[in-house]
Amino acid sequence: MAEKPLVSVCIPVYNGAKFVQEALDSLTSQTYRNLEVIISDDCSEDNTIQICEKFQEKTGFPTFIYRHKPEGIGANWNHCIEKANGSYIKFLFQDDILEPACIEKMLATFSVYPEVGLVACKRIFIIDSLYEGTPKIKKWLDDYGNLQKSLPTQPHNGIYLLDRSVFKYRTFFDKPFNKIGEPTAVMFRRELFDELGPFNTALKQMLDYEYWYRILKEHPIAVLDEALIKFRLHEDQTTARNKTNKISERMSYIRFIEKELFFYLSFGHQLELIRNKTIRLIRKIGKITLNGITFGKKSI
Fold first, then answer.
1. What is the extent of the structural domain holding 288?
2. What's the domain count of the chain?
């Protein structure tokens, strides 16, 4: 890669004082140096901003800190990207860590595969001592430890190269629904934000992979079979809080598939969606008379 494109490292923060210093420190150790840092703070009530300002003073990277009116996590992600000047977006969440060669290796992948819109990687897990060895964390690791486990394909030269045919896989509806990675595990072209629009701010848990699948519908995705980030599992992270608060978005995910991905699915999955949508409509209106037959309270 002759030129060294600018990479915007986007760090949306909120009350992240416990771990954000480690996240920032992992930036200073990056082997790729043409970076800018965009920090968007959702009115933290701890000393997150003070930690970020100290980093801004001593780092060699251009670092911009913005205050953002809290409107949900998706709005904060979007705000970060809107402020970015780079050709590539690299998320780094406040409780995660980048391995030193993370950005360099992801950027090199874009050079080898110029058609790719997003590059992702595997993860190393940092597990909170309260979770370590518990049935809860064992189940989480079984379900989500390997996000690509349900893909009927193997990496070639250390890379899963995915295209929209993923949507036709029999296992597309199997867990994990996110078959790409969490935001810290991905880098994507900045131009896609203009092409595809922002993250869906109405969503809480699935807004990341909903966006990845919007990208995959238009551009291939490369997943490196190498762990280039450390993903922290602890009780204060947003996903854990959402599950505690019983925020479920399965139906939102199904509606997204019906609206955006239906014509890319296998015929069997299309029929299943049509059948389930019909049942939902019947249940919603309660009673329908069709060809002299009454449906509703009776089973069909």
1. 266-300
2. 2
